[in-house]
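Lesson 9: reading folded outputs for more than one chain in a single document. The general rule is that every protein is listed as its sequence immediately followed by its structure tokens, and records are never interleaved. Here is the first one.
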Amino acid sequence: MGDAIAVLAILVPVFIAAFALRWVRMIRLNSEKQIEQNQEIIALLKESAKESGR
């Protein structure tokens, strides 16, 4: 019984760390996509402002 508790005590933090790293990676990838989309939006807004100013 004690061995099972020891194994769980070791594995639980490992799984938590793995899930945390995966979560951080997903957030980073989504942030990069959002930065690209924001840059496209800014470019379109600048283009629209030039056209409306003519």
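And here is the second record, again sequence then tokens.
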Amino acid sequence: MQNEELEEKVTIMEELIQGIAGRINVIETGLAEFLKNFLNQYCGTLETIAAQIETANKRYDDQKIRQQIDELKGVVAAVPKVIGVRNSHHFGTWSKSLIIGIVVCFVLTAVAMGTSLYLNHQNNRLNSEAYNFWLVRALYPKVSKTIEMRLAENPNAFIEKAEKAMIKQQAIIAAEVVAAQPEQDQKEAKRKLEKVKANK
């Protein structure tokens, strides 16, 4: 049984090989004819292209083109390689006057602005003090009359006494601030301690 199957398979293989050999023969003969026809057509195309190249070469004059190239080279050689540039900076009399004028205007504007800000600050301070004296005059008329009378009698001594009193008051206020600082520090330390205990 196995021999018969093997013989059958060998027979099929022989038939396939004979079929392939026949086809290869047909391809070899057909390919040679195809290549021969292709080369004949290609030779004709090459001859046509060569003829067109010849006619194109005859249209242009080599000497005329070379002459134009030489002329262009001469023009390029005539162009200067380095072009000098004037590179000097100076201010004329008009420019100097303008710059000096602008600087002077800027300085004057800055001085005027500074003076106006200072005078505005002083005006606000004097206005506040005048308002305070007006309150004293309205609420304590006897005190204001005493101040006016003392100013009229001996203004320099009274102003000196008032300045000393003001210096004393400022020193007292500064001492109170310094004394209040340890209390605030102590309160702050207690608050931090309570916060730390609360976080545990």
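What the second record shows: The chain has five helices and no strands.
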